[in-house]
Amino acid sequence: MDQRISLITLGVDDMERAAAFYEALGWTRVESPDGVIAFDLIGQTLGLYPKADLARDMGVAAETLKGSGGVTLAHNLREKHEVGLLAARWDKAGGTVLKAPHDVFWGGCIAYVADPDGVVWELAWNPHAPLGQDGAFQWNGAL
Amino acid sequence: MDQRISLITLGVDDMERAAAFYEALGWTRVESPDGVIAFDLIGQTLGLYPKADLARDMGVAAETLKGSGGVTLAHNLREKHEVGLLAARWDKAGGTVLKAPHDVFWGGCIAYVADPDGVVWELAWNPHAPLGQDGAFQWNGAL
């Protein structure tokens, strides 16, 4: 199994609400098949998909698919002050700030936020792990 | 907000069990700070982190962080027969096959599987969306 994640799929309650949220943050959707709204990332895609359809495909009850469980998605930023700016933008766009930006013991600054479907993201500035020119992140290059 | 996810963090109950599972699938961890086990992917990293620590950082009860909620991670494969081979490997490594490989209406073949912490992955072959040479996936290039 090669080390890659091709798609991150978010099962959402309202497709256009979810898409409008990420678009309000500055993202642009790409053309995709009916029933999916897709945002290309770096080497992978984030896909929005109706939660009821995801539950059907998985063979589980839709009520069991809440939030993001023990999974968080991190969006790293190049500058410390961007963490606060982006957290404010999430709030304004209809997301929730779970934990306001704060300094952490390892020298970075992070915030926890959630999208309208309760998917938890970490907004982070990590001075030990600069992003590549194209925004790519690799832990190994950071040490 | 640029279109990127820097890290996907999985809050896990047992760090070495979780790491051993992904290593059994063929992944190799990179050096990372104490308390984190990291696997570099394409332009991003998957990080394993103790669920109790993630709950503390997020300010929630650890019991609320179960599985992956409405989020699934997809690992796309180049050939249809690889879906079945990889699902079998997940099973052998201690994962769970939630839905065995099966053809889907859009022409692909997928399986749903879960890791030992209940994080749901989709193993997929999508003939309409070939992977790049390095394994990268972009939806836009696929249409």
Question: In a few lines, what is going on in this structure?
Answer:
The structure is a homodimer of 143-residue chains. Chain A is an alpha/beta fold.
Segments of chain A where pLDDT lies below 50 for 5+ residues? none
Radius of gyration of chain A: 16 Å
Tell me how many strands of chain A there are.
7
Estimated structural class of chain A: alpha/beta
Tell me the quaternary state: homodimer
**Major interchain interface with per-chain residue totals:** A-B, 71 and 71 residues
CATH domain class name of the largest domain in chain A: Alpha Beta
Taken in chain order, the helices and strands of chain A follow as: EHEEHEHEEE
End-to-end Cα distance of chain A, whole Å, is 25 Å
Strands ordered across the widest β-sheet of chain A: 4-7-6-5
Largest sheet of chain A: 4 strands, mixed
The 3D shape of chain A can be described as: globular
Q: Could you characterize what this model shows?
A:
- Two copies of one chain form a homodimer.
- The first copy, chain A, is of the alpha/beta class.
- Chain A has two domains: 1-66, 2,3-Dihydroxybiphenyl 1,2-Dioxygenase, domain 1; 67-143, Roll (2,3-Dihydroxybiphenyl 1,2-Dioxygenase, domain 1), CATH 3.10.180.
- In chain A, 22% of the residues lie in helices and 30% in strands.
- Chain A has three helices and seven strands.
- A four-stranded mixed sheet of chain A has the order 4-7-6-5, covered by helices on one side. Chain A has a three-stranded mixed sheet with strand order 1-3-2.
- The two termini of chain A are 25 Å apart.
- The model of chain A has no long low-confidence stretch (mean pLDDT 95).
